[in-house]
Design brief:
This protein is an all-alpha fold. It contains 1 helix and no strands. The chain is about 30% helix and about 0% strand. The longest helix is centred in the middle third of the chain and has 13 residues.
Length: about 45
């Protein structure tokens, strides 16, 4: 709250990084493969 942040502060996600590095991390995450692969159905199974 001291710096105008009312929602989240601290090391909950990661150590502090520059704005440029934060933007890189967000871009990389947006382009990453999903953590959970898509599943396909197996014939004869319901």
């Amino acid at each position: 709250a001291e710096m105008g942040c009312e929602l989240a502060q601290g090391y909950g996600l990661c150590r502090p990084v520059s704005a440029e590095r934060c933007a890189e991390v967000v871009r990389d995450a947006a382009n990453a493969a999903p953590a959970i692969p898509k599943l396909r159905s197996v014939r004869g199974q319901s």
